[in-house]
């Protein structure tokens, strides 16, 4: 499919993340005292859905769903409504339609806020190269992958309250740290603060019991870029035997725009060939992963940014649909607004690794930045930006920047 | 403090869980088509708070808070409102007050539903004897406690959507199981389904950054009994390296009544002496644990129940306030309605262990039930009941039964 043209001129280029082919969903605050509103990105503009609905330009299901600053109510309506809105928007914003610039707001003039209320947040570990790298560092190359890894999309529950939107500053956490040669831990600011480059799936329909992979795919509303900020030193001391906890609870940043499953349809691709056959319940009836290019850029305070990693969502060993199916096997109820992080996505090459832990090989090989600095882990003032997009024929379906700046730890977290 | 008397006669005995000293909060469904309503247990009755508020008998903060079937809105009002309501109820229900039986509903005539909307659910591992028992089984007596255990209230994020109220049937889950001598896992119904006897703390105030132990205690609204149903065989195969996931996602049952911190005030007790000094941020300025007797009863289908364990909340090594403080160290935002499970509470004696895993020593020593059966793990049809209460001078501050029946696994979870 080629670039679909819009009457919004800035959408008709190969460079924008937001051509008519995309139509990603977000929530923007116009900064004029009005309530934040649901909108659709088109070129460098936002189409105001709240206004369009209240004026009858858009109508979904008979009752207002865009009078709240979140996409949860719309997600609840289900896949038919999702398809219906996409059709209406494609018509309204397409080249032949009546230009309605009074419904457009410039992206440069607004602040994006969280697009959804996150019900619960689960973080998976579905990147094989990442799991292998981390396993090699901690257990040696022979025992790199845990025995269950090729059978289970390993995941753990994260903290929904810590999910923030792109642009939110991230404060370096305190925590219990213990060096390998120390007898006891100290309570100090994290020294090994890191990013994790992930792809996030947003669950748009609920479930009560186990769901098949096909049903799981149907439940997914769309995808975001996701940075799972990680305190490696806190994690090293706390994670046995019940997994990461405070190391992952400072913040998880998502991109402001939800790219719908429909927009990513032309970019479906299969998960990799299996060296261990999956149990039948996890096998995919068709391609359910995506070909989406990803990159990570790091900019020290007042310095130029360096792209420190490039990889692709197709490196994932388990798709979000497979993750979601596994999530329901125990009968775990899923809710509208659940967020599933993929786990860090690394490729096979050294510069395709999605965390500083891997890029600097646990600090042993600091990476060089364009401005002359080096990094093993994040420094205060560093701004991290994730970018991603699926490359079409003369157009890109992108996510917009997923960014966050690291700010200094509190002087004393318990001072009052 | 002795028994405080009420005009509700059934509240004036040493046997009831619900004397005037208690006044626990729940939500009941009268089964007559009306909306479920907030109520207060008194003897064998419930005082209808929704009706009392709408008639002006109870007034908190000027606006209606009991017109919804959940205590979240009331919790948000904060500690002064909490104290205010308790004062009003003590006056209204005390011996000298005007009897208002038209505000009473019999507990026998209603169904209790979830008292709160659980925001997020965290499960700790704060019982030393439990951690020691499990560690001994899996790693030997010398390495029983993980190295971090005496320094950190270890916890992991659970799944809020799986928390259910007492009385809800619990379906045996399916999952990936792998025996120690098997090369690959099978997908089958859980064979080692278990309970965990826990004490749950309900967070009634939010936080943004780290909070002290004193502040954490102030944020806690009350406590419930909690059964963290656990699939031991699923857990054994899945939990490395990121912790328990589907093994703990089938269900967690809580008691229908929230016993307030105020009601438990006379029963405060200190956590045990430390063999390793805690880091300053975790030290408690005063007694923040509770002396609450606990028991677990198991009744096979159509057979008498057997009390299989008796223990006490005071066995916990870390109080809920300490758990909550640790939870916030990374900057993790806490929300109104967060639920913190204590982890399994076991005592030092064989019959004071809070899980079948420990009681049957991983199935090696099945326990005998009064009806002649034995149990290593739970069988279909088994009903589990947790009970708990603080023993005062001629009265008990109790929680009501926290019960759940195990029903058979689905024949085929993916059949459609």
Topology of this protein?
2 copies of one chain form a homodimer.
Chain A: E1 25-29, E2 37-42, E3 45-48, H1 49-54, H2 72-77, H3 79-93, E4 104-106, E5 111-113, E6 121-124, H4 128-139, E7 155-157, E8 163-165, E9 170-171, E10 174-177, E11 186-189, E12 193-194, E13 197-203, H5 213-219, E14 220-228, E15 230-231, H6 232-238, E16 252-254, E17 259-260, H7 261-264, E18 268-269, E19 289-290, E20 293-299, E21 306-312, H8 320-328, E22 339-341, H9 356-359, E23 367-368, E24 374-375, E25 383-391, E26 396-398, E27 402-407
Parallel strand pairs in A: 6-22, 8-16, 9-27
Antiparallel strand pairs in A: 1-2, 1-5, 2-3, 3-4, 6-7, 10-11, 12-15, 13-14, 13-22, 14-16, 14-17, 18-19, 20-21, 20-25, 23-24, 25-26, 25-27
Helix pairs in contact in A: 5-8
């Amino acid at each position: 499919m080629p670039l679909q043209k819009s009457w919004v001129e800035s959408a008709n280029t190969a460079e924008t993340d937001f051509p008519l082919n995309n139509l990603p969903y977000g929530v923007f605050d116009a900064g004029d005292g009005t309530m934040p509103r649901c909108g659709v990105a088109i070129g460098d503009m936002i189409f105001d859905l709240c206004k369009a609905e209240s004026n009858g330009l858009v109508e979904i299901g008979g009752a207002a769903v865009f009078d709240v600053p979140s996409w949860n109510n719309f997600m609840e309506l289900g896949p038919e409504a999702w398809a219906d809105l996409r059709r209406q928007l494609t018509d309204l914003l397409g080249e032949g339609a009546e230009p309605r610039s009074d419904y457009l707001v410039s992206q440069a003039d607004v602040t994006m806020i969280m697009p959804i209320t996150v019900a619960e947040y689960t973080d998976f570990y579905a990147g094989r190269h990442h799991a292998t790298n981390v396993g090699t560092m901690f257990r040696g190359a022979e025992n790199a992958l845990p025995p269950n890894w090729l059978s289970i999309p390993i995941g753990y529950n994260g903290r929904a309250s810590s999910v923030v939107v792109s642009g939110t500053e991230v404060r370096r956490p305190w925590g219990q740290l213990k060096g390998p040669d120390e007898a006891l831990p100290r309570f100090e600011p994290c020294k090994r603060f890191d990013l994790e480059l992930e792809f996030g799936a947003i669950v748009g329909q609920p479930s009560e019991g186990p769901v098949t992979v096909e049903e799981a795919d149907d439940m997914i509303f769309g995808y975001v870029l996701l940075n799972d900020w990680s305190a490696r030193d806190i994690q090293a001391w706390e994670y046995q035997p019940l997994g990461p906890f405070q190391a992952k609870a400072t913040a998880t940043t998502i991109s402001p725009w939800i790219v719908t499953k429909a927009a990513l349809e032309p970019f479906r691709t299969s998960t990799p060939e299996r060296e261990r056959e999956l149990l039948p319940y996890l096998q995919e009836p068709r391609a359910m992963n995506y070909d989406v290019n990803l990159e990570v850029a790091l900019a020290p305070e007042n310095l130029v940014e360096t792209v420190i990693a490039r990889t692709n969502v197709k490196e994932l060993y388990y798709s979000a649909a497979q993750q979601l199916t596994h999530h329901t096997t125990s009968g775990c109820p899923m809710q509208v607004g659940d967020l599933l992080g993929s786990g860090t996505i690394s490729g096979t090459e050294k510069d395709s690794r999605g965390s500083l832990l891997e890029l600097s090989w646990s600090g042993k090989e600091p990476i060089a930045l364009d401005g002359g600095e080096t990094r093993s882990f994040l420094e205060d003032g560093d701004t991290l930006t994730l970018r991603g997009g699926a490359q079409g024929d003369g157009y890109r379906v992108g996510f917009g920047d997923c960014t966050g700046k690291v700010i200094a730890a509190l002087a004393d977290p318990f001072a009052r």
